[in-house]
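Please, structure for the following, as tokens.
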Amino acid sequence: MYNIKILHITPHLGGGVGSVLLNYLKFELVESPQNIHSIITLDYANEKAIKLCNANHIKIYDKMRNKTNNVLELVKEADIILIHFWNHPLIYEFILTNPLPESRIIFWAHTSGLYPPQSFQEKIVNYPDEFVFTTQISYDSHVIQNNINKNKFSTILSTGGVEKFLSLQQQPHENFNIGYIGTVDYAKMHPDFINICNKIDIPNAKFIVVGGDKEKEILLEVENLGLSNKFQFTGKVLDVKPYLAKFDVFGYPLNPNHYGTAEQVLQEAMAAGIIPIVLNNKAECSLIKHFKNGLIANNTEEYCSYIKLLSQDQKLKNRLSKQCKEYANKNFSLKKLCKQWNNTYKKVLTYPKKTHTYSEKRIWQPHEIFFEAICEYKEPFMLYLEKGIINDKLESFLTQKEWQSKTKGTPKQYYNFMPDKHLERICNLYV
């Protein structure tokens, strides 16, 4: 049988995207041994990822940002290049500055593309041979709706698999534990997350926040409000199962403009029978059926009332918990993910290899790469750099949490990876 060489390119390997990719590849080794996968990280792979790759004989090329010739040789040798895409400085730098030799390129978009700075832009969407979404809501992007080549788009729900969570047993605990797992950053969390928690009228409520780096801003907010005894912040953990086992519900109120798509932690919570309560953002609504496998609130007051309802109605809680498990088992399996990717590989293999060039040969300055990535949203930043004018649009970008993050495609992230004086001027506006 012909071995298909698939080369994955990702900014880094670890965290949410890393767990999805590595769990998929482990499953692939058994399910589809004819597929030979290897991975390039432009930045880094964490220790856990490297150990897992070595244990499963997955070839990994780590920290390859400055080894362009090696990367291009690996691209030539592969049958398919799968780029794990979101607005990350190193992804844009790689694509803009390196014409790729003859190859077949797939993008798997790990962001919805609906909201800046993680929105899609036309040239990047047109770049690969196949553009795969991780959520159906990406079709709502005006860039996608206006694209004439509809055949190049498809959706494969991102999942790291939930099989190991299906048998998780609830552990005895004190309090009514309202759990959150994921990014501890207001670019992802609802900007009023702590105050929302404080409004939940349950005497024995305890809020357990798992993940992140114990963000100082959020911890200080909790302390200033005198709520330290109500919260537990764990920081990053290697295994979320012990925490899920002590959650009564999964409280997941997110920023209305968040960049997420398939929300792996929602999938895992459902598989564990922990009922998610979310706000009516598009990504969450694409995964949750109201009063079937979770609760969808239209506003923060309703969100609080739903959590209180579940603390009082054990019969409803038991029914929804059972339905959560059933839904997760049916929809979030690695077997389904593997089958969908194999169908996509077969389709792309029918395409002839071709060169991929983003633009004419030129030297891209760091701030130009940032502007290219945010595309239609660059004008207020350019106006400030050229004339020192801070208009209303720029004011809004300076105050929105999703633009203030140190990561997630913001000016601060671009400056961190590729500093120049123009990005520095923009970042100084956020101080």
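The two ends are 58 Å apart (CA to CA). The mean pLDDT is 94.
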